[in-house]
Amino acid sequence: MRTVLRAGLLGFAAVELVLGVWTLVFPASFYADVPTVDLTPPFSEHLMRDFGGATLGLALVLAAAGIWLERRLVIVALLAYLAFSVPHLMFHVGHLGNASDLEAAVLVVLLAASVVVPALLLTVALRAVEVSPGPPVRR
Description:
This protein is mostly helical and 139 residues long. It has five helices and no strands. The model has no long low-confidence stretch (mean pLDDT 92).
């Protein structure tokens, strides 16, 4: 189970790292070149750069959880990712009008996976006994 958690966490961290750097450094390119991002205009450089920075923060938390596999950190990282991915999926499902059928199908499948996979990893983390429990709590 540790291997599954590590691979999932580091995989999501890698995706968020790429998206975060791209959005932070090249916000206009991210807006123009990622399919469906430009379906809900207008472009805001400020918003895109802020999103890039926040995405990098999420990548850092996911990577730390994947490296250390401390149970509480893993759970918090996955919950943080789901706090982003669930509303992201809900928004896009409600705003598919300007997308082609293919764009809509691909988008919904990818975004649904970005909710289902972390939810499954969270279930694994909550049930796993071999994930490091973390340092003892001092009282």
